[in-house]
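note to self: dont lose this again. the chain is below, predicted strucutre after it. 79 aa total, dont forget to put it in the shared folder this time
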Amino acid sequence: MAEQIYKPGEVVPKAGLYLVLHHEHRKNHEVTLFKGEQFPLCRRCGEEVRFQLVLMATHIGEDADFRLKKSRRHSQGRH
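---
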């Protein structure tokens, strides 16, 4: 099954490392994008640029072991 290719303006579905596929002016390279952002235009190849997910990653703030917990005192409304 072929990997999904994304276009500028589409919403990034998963945070991770993406391969940037430029249109002839530059070699492919990797970038980090976060879920919910939009895939950007390239200043040189504009809408011809494409993106392919290489490695999915979870932002540390979304990981259950690293989420900030409300303190018991704080959650009970005490100051």
